Amino acid sequence: MRRYEVPRLAFINKLDRMGSDPWKVLNQARSKLRHHSAAVQVPIGLEENFQGLIDLVQLKAYYFHGSSGEKVVAEEIPADMDAIVAEKRRELIEMVSEVDDKLAEAFLNDEPISSVDLEEAVRRATIARKFVPVFMGSAFKNKGVQPLLDGVLSCLPCPIEVSNYALDQTKNEVKVMLPGTPDGPLVALAFKLEEGRFGQLTYLRVYEGVIRKGDFIVNINTGKKIKVPRLVRMHSDEMEDIQEAHAGQIVAVFGVDCASGDTFTNGSVKYTMTSMSVPEPVMSLAVQPVSKDSGGQFSKALNRFQREDPTFHVGLDAESGQTIISGMGELHLDIYVERIRREYKVDATVGKPRVNFRETITQRAEFDYLHKKQSGGQGQYGRVCGYVEPIPPGSPIKIEFENMIVGQAIPSNFIPAIEKGFKEAANSGSLIGHPVENIRIVLTDGASHAVDSSELAFKLAAIYAFRQCYSAARPVILEPIMLVELKVPTEFQGTVAGDINKRKGVIVGNDQDGDDSIITVNVPLNNMFGYSTMLRSMTQGKGEFTMEYKEHSPVSQDVQMQLVSTHKADKAE
């Protein structure tokens, strides 16, 4: 919430449980979470004597009657609680005055502070993200839930009070401020997909403009133009048909084929709400259903998850015929396997996790290969000459093919087949069978035969030429390096840093945040398996980490030899 600058309020639950102590929780939130917070309510009784709440802003006592607390009754404050109410209200005013100048002025001049002034000050401070109002209750019997929802209305910002930014795709993803008015062009984000009774239900948040039933809208991510067949407002699982929705509202549409995170506009602007660049998956798992009968449900689940999440990929391993799922890490893939089990009732067996290595070359190498085959009838003939060289890392194109033949040594209609052959060969390098990248292939000469040359002959010549020169180009293996941010209590810093060094991590930053150390490290993904359990045991469960893909970089010589020998052993098996 800090990262995305979200204003928030807190709710302390379970006041009817034994040993409940909201003031202890409030102090922990201040010390541990660094919340600048104060209670806006005081409970009437605790544990089994919990009866209701006193609102410190309006100075009213609320009781919740009925089997599930649906009847809210407002009464005067009980006389025996006047002292604690006065003390807690003063504390609330002090806390808000520290971050709100208008209230501070009244407080310092000892002016009486009315409910309206206090409510406005709490709202201003919450929206400015300088204060967290704390509500309390017991959600099981709905005690305190209605005042919490009123608090959402009175303290949290309405859609116009929040700055939302879109990315302009015509100007290289420049940030554009959306004013959030119904008059502007339509901008809406599909943030959630659901399999409903009538097919895919897409939830849209309208950021600007108006969406109407029967309108044509454009999916910026795919460029498709679609009609809105049915527009509904959701009330939990009930739907209410509506004709139009304005900026700031959340609606659902039927029959719109899209992925999660797609942006829709009316076609006049090319804005997206989320970046269109999707990181490459860094980890793969082989999965297959336990029983043969559940194959249909299994593939249905995988198709749906791919639509929901652009970083989740499904592929087929050509050699073993297994289904391979790829994603952004161990936990990411574990969750999807669990969802297949839970939502589609399909038990799946999971193979060993596999890191997505890459291969590249480090020096220029020449190739000159003649593919000639004569077996009665039309033969095969194709000769290709040229060289391969490395491209500097970080270039947008991973494999570059250049035709520098002068004249007609190879007829131009065979050039695409040669390019296809090279790209096919680069799909699996000879070191460990992973794709080759950052390589430029230049064709300088060749020879063809009037009768025997064909597309197939040149494609095969290209594949063999690539394999012939690959080992001469000093190939190396690249492994995914992850940018890991660890947040651990300072007393465990030494242990955690020592463990990171064992995993060949490089510490790039170390900051203090209160009692916590924030350590930034670059670690090879291959050494991060099972890290979450390890970190928990090292820090008594207090440490946490986030991990995102940074880059692929060359592995050390000993790791490369080990990977190559493992690959050879697997192939021999």
Task: Summarize this structure as a short list of keywords or feature phrases.
single chain, 573 residues, alpha+beta, eight-stranded antiparallel β-sheet, five-stranded antiparallel β-sheet, 26% helix, 34% strand, elongated
Characterization of the model:
- The structure is a single chain.
- By secondary structure, the protein is α+β, with helices and mostly antiparallel strands.
- It is built from 12 helices and 34 strands.
- GO terms for molecular function: translation elongation factor activity.
- Residues 354-474 form the Translation elongation factor EFG/EF2 domain.
Output the structural class: alpha+beta
Number of strands: 34
Radius of gyration, in Å, reads 31 Å
Largest sheet: spatial strand order: 14-13-19-10-11-18-15-16
Q: Could you list the spans in which at least 5 consecutive residues all have pLDDT below 50?
A: none
Short note summarizing the structure:
The protein is α+β, with helices and mostly antiparallel strands and 573 residues long.
List the SSEs and their pairings.
Blueprint: E1 10-12, H1 22-32, E2 37-39, E3 41-44, E4 52-55, E5 60-65, E6 71-75, H2 82-97, H3 101-108, H4 115-127, E7 132-136, H5 145-155, E8 164-168, E9 174-178, E10 187-196, E11 199-208, E12 210-212, E13 216-219, E14 225-227, E15 231-235, E16 238-241, E17 244-246, E18 250-254, E19 263-265, E20 271-272, E21 283-289, H6 295-308, E22 313-316, E23 323-327, H7 330-344, E24 348-350, E25 354-355, E26 358-361, E27 365-373, E28 380-390, E29 399-403, H8 415-425, E30 439-447, H9 455-470, E31 475-489, H10 493-502, E32 506-513, E33 516-524, H11 531-538, E34 544-554, H12 557-572
Helix pairs in contact: 2-3, 6-7, 8-9
